[in-house]
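your task:
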Amino acid sequence: MNNELNIKEKTINLLNEAEQQVQEQFKNQEEICLYNSIKVLNAFKKHNISEIHFNQTTGYGYNDLGREKIEQVYSEIFKSEDSLVRNQFISGTHALATTLFALLRPNDTLLSITGLPYDTLHEVIGIKENKSSLKSYGINYEQIDLVDNDFNYELIKETLKNKKIKVVEIQRSKGYSTRKSITLDKLEKVINIIRKIDQNVIIMVDNCYCEFVNKKEPIELGADITVGSLIKNLGAGITTNGAYVTGRKDLIQLVAERLNVPGQGKEVGPTQNSNKAILQGLYLAPNVVKNSIKTAILTAKALENLGYKTEPKYNEQRADIVQNIIFGNSEKVIKYTQGIQMGSAIDSNAIPTPWDMPGYEDQIIMASGSFVQGSSIEISCDAPIREPYIAYQQGSLTYEYGKIAVAKAIDNIEQ
């Protein structure tokens, strides 16, 4: 790396030392990867995936055999009744918005129990005024903030007992907040508490960035419906767009009719040559997620050895692929992000700068050397330019590429 990529010997030694210190954590990720690989392979085998399922449909997309098989495979993996896996979804945010509009009606109440959702959902919900928001349709919104990075169990109980809540929304990943992501043990605990009070409330989990990080998924813990992107974990850098929604059959039908048209639902939606990429991305996903987590662990340990604060720390339980580095000043968060871009395959000569990104209140700096636009799983790093100046790093497709990108980033801040 020193000769070919112009990385300082001091940085190489730092990463090699950190690598030796995290072998126990790496071994755990290998075990999780094997478990999830078996899960995916068994789903492919059970549903007899063959080359015919790579074929595409156009127009209305009637009788798309591959699309139907993909949704069966997703349901098998997530232990759900039904799934909607479509390239008509533009993003994970689009899938979340579609799901919320599908499940909620005027005078219903949406309750977020993980505090303020992603910035991009603020106009969807009506936290920030928009004439097309849920609020504009008479849908109410309430939120309960986390307390010390855990659910406020007592307030959740009180709210569910005293108010009629239609949908409880849980966002597992942290977004641009400073909180921790939601681990499976916390998720299971809060779902059990909710069910003791209200059997009918719909529990919706935003699972983006979290798939295959552990051995179980939210539906297995009692969630009704879960949503995520195909250009993050499950796309493995192969799938070029789309998202999934999986869960109860009746709820999936509502989401399908909201995405498409009432009366047609899941029966339409041309795949336009996306089936192979969706299947291949899913097949590779357990290994790519493992590589992303290993890169995150190495990043955390190396930056901790340099004296920076990280979240999660290198040896903490992980809920998603996101690694936070808390820099405390804008210059270093910008330089680190620029260093990730330098270590990327695509647009490595570009220099990211903060800009007014649509859907966000603060300026955002974003490094993404991705083959698929916005695909955080490849290797990316982004940050809102606001205190405490945290870099949010995700990916990489291979551990080796991740190590190189992190080396370039560290070099750029430790000049």
